[in-house]
Design brief:
By secondary structure, the chain is of the alpha/beta class. The protein has two domains: 12-199 and 379-394, 3-Layer(aba) Sandwich (Rossmann fold); 215-373, Rossmann fold (3-Layer(aba) Sandwich), CATH 3.40.50.2000. It is 43% helix and 17% strand. Helix 2 (67-79) runs antiparallel to helix 3 (85-92) and helix 8 packs across helix 14 (348-356). 42% of the residues are buried.
Length: 396
């Protein structure tokens, strides 16, 4: 049960995220559950997904700097290798950071929930002006967010490492999405880090038996080139004719979605489908009539290696079996609950062999396991842990 405060006073919580709020599943969950007990102000880009009682949106304009200022920002990032003050100048030269700071100060919160490292200096500065407590929600491991990119390692990695080392110890509490990531943060900054996983709200879905002649794979998310989604198209060309694959992909890397469609038409004509994306709150309802959720992510950096994403839990909540590579965090849950198959490596041919060996009855048994696991793996349980942290911070 979430703690509900007296009708006389609802504590004021600001949820800060420099992301597109109405598309950010984790942030929308935070807002939804917090509004049951707090007066919530959301600060970030865009808008809410819908009107919500006890929630006020203070939008921040995402601003693209002109070329001359962007060049100066690059120089500041490089300068941060010499003097850390250059990182501070880079950070506070961004107009949206100032907008967010002023929005939080105007909200006068009791507690600030700062999502991802890029928002943390804003939250710490606002806390200094308002006396609010700060919960830092790191999500993933910021110092290696895109460490597979040389330019990112040169420009951004020192900046994000600076933010974590300088500001994370100043937060009153810290959370992340996965146990290995929490342990790595604890080693870096010598503080306790709790884990709140990216899991959707519990929704009861019916069991849908698998058609032995038509087995439906589904993958949803963003069309980002670095995720190498074409590997799943290659996989479909390697499995038997029982299988089809559907993508629900948000636009990501320019031109990549079109490239995937062209590759699908070439390698697996008539067997790969692209459907319109839906809001986060409608994902499990939309995908529930498929048979297996598939996620084959060859890790190119630490966060990908330790991935435990929304989509994995959405597959489970929708009552699907799961087909993945040997990503350790996901594989541990697949094996614990016996709800899918884990390939020995990240090659598409390896997972295709596992799929070809499955019968409809085996898939159905895994689907039943997912439906049972969803009663435990749901946002209600994760948000209960989060709200216990809120309560501890507000009533130490």
């Amino acid at each position: 049960m979430l703690i509900v405060f007296s009708f006389m006073y609802r504590p004021k919580l600001t949820i800060l995220s420099l992301s597109t709020i109405h598309q950010d599943g984790r942030v929308l969950r935070e807002i939804e559950y917090a509004a049951r007990a707090y007066d919530v102000t959301a600060v970030g880009w865009g808008r809410l997904d819908r009107e919500r009682p006890h929630v006020t949106m203070r939008p921040v304009q995402k601003i693209t700097l002109p070329p001359a200022q962007r060049a100066m920002q690059v120089a500041r990032m490089l300068g941060g290798r010499i003097t850390r003050r250059a990182f501070e100048r880079w950070y506070w030269a961004k107009p949206d950071h100032h907008q967010a700071l002023q929005a939080i100060i105007a909200a006068r919160p009791d507690l600030i929930h700062a999502n991802e490292a890029i928002s943390l200096p804003i939250a710490i500065a606002a806390a200094g002006r308002t006396g609010a407590k700060v919960l830092f929600d790191a999500h993933e491991y910021s110092p290696e967010q895109r460490s597979d990119s040389f330019s990112w390692r040169v420009l951004a990695q020192p900046l994000y490492t600076y933010i974590i080392i300088t500001y994370a110890p100043l937060a009153d509490a810290m959370i992340t999405v996965e146990d290995h990531i929490a342990q790595r943060y604890e080693t870096l900054i010598q503080r306790n880090v709790s884990v709140i996983r990216n899991i959707p709200a519990y929704r009861q879905h019916d069991f849908h038996p698998t058609d032995p002649a038509h087995i439906r794979l589904i993958h949803h998310g963003a069309a980002m080139k670095e995720r190498r989604l074409e590997r799943m198209i290659h996989l479909l060309s390697q499995v038997d004719e029982r299988y089809t694959l559907t993508f629900l992909l948000m636009p990501g890397t320019p031109g990549y979605l079109e490239a995937l469609k062209a590759q699908a038409a070439k390698l697996a004509p008539g067997r790969v489908f692209f459907q319109p994306v839906v809001p986060p709150s409608q994902i499990t309802e939309t995908i529930q009539h498929n048979d297996l959720g598939i996620y084959l992510l060859q890790p190119a950096n630490y966060n990908q290696a330790m991935a435990l994403p929304n989509k994995f839990f959405e597959f489970i909540m929708a009552g699907l079996a799961v087909a993945i590579g040997p990503s350790p965090a996901m594989a541990a849950l697949v094996e614990k609950y016996q709800l899918g198959v884990v390939a020995e490596d990240f090659e598409s041919i390896t997972l295709s062999r596992r799929l070809n060996a499955l019968s409809a009855g085996e898939i159905d048994a895994m689907k039943h396991q997912s439906l049972a696991a969803a009663r435990e793996l749901n946002a209600e349980n994760e948000m209960r842990k989060l709200h216990a942290i809120y309560t501890r911070l507000l009533d130490p």
